[in-house]
Amino acid sequence: MTRKNVSRIGAWRSAGVRAGMVAPAVLIYAALLVVPVGYAFYYSFTDYNGFPNRVPEFIGLDNYRTMFESHDITGTMVVTAIVAAVGAVAVNLAALGLALLLQKTNRFNTFGRVVMFYPHVLSALVVGFLWQAILGPQGVINTLLEKAGTSSLPFLSDPDGALWSMILVIVWSLFGVQLVLYLAGLQAVPQDLIEAARIDGAGRWGTFRAVTWPSLASTVTVAVITSCISLLKTYDVVVSLTGGGPAGSTKTLAYSILAVSFPQRKIGVASAQAVLLIVAAAIMAITVLVLRRRAENDAESIG
Amino acid sequence: MKSTHRGRRSRSAAVVTVVSMTLLAACSSGGNAGGGGDGEIRMMVNLTDNLNQAYWEKLVKPFEDKTGLKVKIEGPSGKSVAESFPQQLAAGTAPDVIQSIFPDDDTAPELLDLSGEKWAAGTPMFDDYAMGNAHYAVGVGEQAQSLVYYNKTAFKKAGISEPPAAWDEFTADLGKLKKAGYTAMQTAGQYQTGLQLQQLDHPTLNIAHPKWQTAVKDKKLSVGDAYEPMFRKYADWIKAGYVAKSDVGLDPSQADGNFIAGKVGFYPNGSWFTSTVDKAGNLPFEVGVFSPPTDSAGSHPGPQGATMADPYMVLKGAKHEDDAKELVRYLVTDATAIATQLEADGVFRQGSTAKHSAVGTQVQSILDDAPSLVAVGEGMGNTRLPVTGFNPKFTEVAQSLYTGATPEQAAKSIDQWVDENR
């Protein structure tokens, strides 16, 4: 056997080992994520009730047409867009602000970080029930207001009030993860650059704008994308806090898929809604990435 | 050069991350089965505080002892039997016997037709739940859907001598109760808003439009036209402050609590609320129950909205189909089994002499005096609306009355939804 043949056999063996190690992960990924998503795409073009005695009937774009012509579903799209946009801004502002306050390591800040992360540990359903007990018409706040002789506030009984209350609760329950991301990002900001900026006479705001913020760019991208995706999928809090009400004013797209379309066995429409959610998440994520890339290119060209 | 590679790599990594997260964001949708181990019948039931695992096991124990068969009690794998059964059907893991839900067009082909069974024919509401000529569900009794619970002490303080029989009397009583310092009528948010409005309207609506669901299906009536009179009454009560606008954000369990605490005059609810009242023990006031008013006192009591209580269905082609059928026969015909179920959770049966609490006795007499039992909400058996998902949508529309919609707008809104989903 020549040396060339031996090395070729070695290369094949090595490739085989590598493929063998990767294959289980690829198979699990495909089975758990790619196949279900593929099915969702397929069902979105069919009329199907999800039962084995019924064969999905291909109906082209009818489910998408139904979805965009339904006042109910388009309403949930608007609510979802508001929750995702306002929620993402609020989550990231709150998380970044608190990360800046808690970035120095001392006992108080360590305690503060645990307290701030705590809401994320709670189940979203529990969060909803908890805030219902606080914001409801007979909740803690309104009971105190009544005892103080003032009129109660319609946190959950007015359509606008319920929507903003729900966004507040979601922000409260989500920002713990973003806080950890920003804290990690802040640890990676080069101290020498901060010191150099201070020596050059930059104040706190100037240092943040010129050094900290640009250094956090990749963290901000990840934090914004992950928070937006979480917000696009808002479901549990809707169930436990408002039940989609009053008068359907807090129904999100995910709620509509899981609490309306699936129970009505409209698998085709539910799948079309899920596909829309995937597309919305992809557009949002790619937009954030493109904007960040453009900003980086602009910065490089100026530099 | 190095930085370009790094940029490309980080871009690729970012794209992979985005695609992965996008896929993670996706929501995906999930042959008949039945049968556990040898000779084991699987029965899926809704487990509650009252009807827990121990209750169900005790209920089927005499059957197991008599037949030597084993019954495996299973709770729903999801939120409820209604949610879990279709999922298990699709997955091929459906149980032999299904309790607490009713057949529909999608599930009927998967269920055993019990039409030929002599023992099934005499069970409560058997024909009411027929689909075409087929009978898939048998039950133990009836749940009365149209009841108004009231506080007798509040009545006395407000100067009301007896429960109202007509709507104008009801509205006058609401005013008296409010004046006496009570919450005139307690309503609640979530599913309960639409439910209560329908509960109050069943008798009146079914006098004006018998089998109104069929009339809607045949396009002889619109849901908006059917419900607009009750929307008007509700809008007037909200405007007058008899119903609090903030109730629309109230958890139904808090509404129950308000009534139990003695703060409320009228509380529309179903017969299942009887068990909540009984469990509350000695209350500082006496609870009364009456059938909702009708347009004129002469036609009171009107038809009573009702659903089959403790319904059972058998999976067609189940591994132990015959054994499963025998189990269901036992559950709906054996005197001890019936008595156990009637006493367990506010379940009633027309003509039954089962022992009830003081409140339960009133409910039993309302059920016995009802001129007829009528379909509620989306309907039952052959009396059905041409849409699914009616109750949640109706609740949304009922809630819009609390948030400023006019009765006309509410009626138009429900009609628009029916047209979109017909």
From TrEMBL, chain A:
Pfam families: BPD_transp_1. The keyword Transport applies. It is found in: Cell membrane. It is a multi-pass membrane protein. This is Bicyclomycin resistance protein. The keyword Lipoprotein does not apply. The chain crosses the membrane at residues 21-42, 77-102, 114-134, 162-189, 210-232, 270-291. Keywords: Cell membrane, Membrane, Transmembrane, Transmembrane helix, Transport.
